[in-house]
Amino acid sequence: MEIWFATFNKGKINEFRNLSQGLPLDLHLASEIATYSSPVEDADTFEANARIKAKSLRAIKDEAWVLAEDSGLEVDGLDKKPGVYSARYAGDNASDMENVAKVMKMLRIRSPKNRKARFICSLVAISPEGEEFVFNGSVEGEISQKVAGQTGFGYDPIFVPEGESKTFADLGPAFKNKVSHRSKAVRAFIEMLKDRL
Ligand code: IMP
């Protein structure tokens, strides 16, 4: 089964590959298409942004499955920011470490005690026939006091999932893939696909 994934984010790609291991999927990335460029993600929900990405790839690839996801971090003490702006919280083209540093700084200034947070993922899939499917996943946790850990990407070095004392970046990919927002959404997608294989 041919699937085209509308992302350039290596962290997301690696996680999807891990989660779909063993399935007869022929996974392709939007980066393989020279004429494809990422659309502007200007919606105010994860689902609407994922739909924008899925539709932009579907316009080029209409004979295969198309998959897109939008995800991010909501911090309660920051009024649910960075939210849909997670990738560019510290500015357009900001690095992961710049975004992490801004969350730590803003939380220190605005609400050092309320560190409750969650990752959210919305995944939109479009079948070759044009049917649209939406899968959502989230994981609750809190923002750590210190940046810690070497694995993962994005805000993993400051996110401690509920019931744990270490960050996702410290806990490692095997743990993250069991509980993460993305793994929940991707698993639901894979379950749906299995019925069609
Ligand atoms: P998107 O590519 O527009 O969906 O941006 C998602 C952004 O949210 C990423 O660049 C990260 O900053 C953040 N993010 C989403 N999922 C994760 C995750 O699993 N770990 C850490 N950061 C994440």
How many E-type strands? 7
Low-confidence stretches: none
Largest sheet: 7 strands, mixed
Number of domains: 1
Structural class: alpha/beta
- By CATH, the architecture is named Alpha-Beta Complex
Helical percent range?
Answer: 25-40%
Strand portion:
15-25%
CATH hierarchy, class: Alpha Beta
The topology string of helices and strands comes to EHEHEEHEEEHHH
How would you describe the overall organization of this protein?
- The protein has 197 residues and is α/β, with parallel strands linked by helices.
- The chain has a single domain (2-194), classed as Maf protein (Alpha-Beta Complex), CATH 3.90.950.
- It contains six helices and seven strands; from the N terminus they run E-H-E-H-E-E-H-E-E-E-H-H-H.
- It has helices at residues 10-19, 46-58, 96-110, 168-171, 173-179, 181-194, and strands at 2-5, 26-29, 65-75, 81-82, 116-126, 132-143, 159-161.
- Bound molecules: inosinic acid (IMP).
- Residues 9, 41, 70-73, 86-87, 99, 119, 152-156, 180, 182 line the site of inosinic acid (IMP).
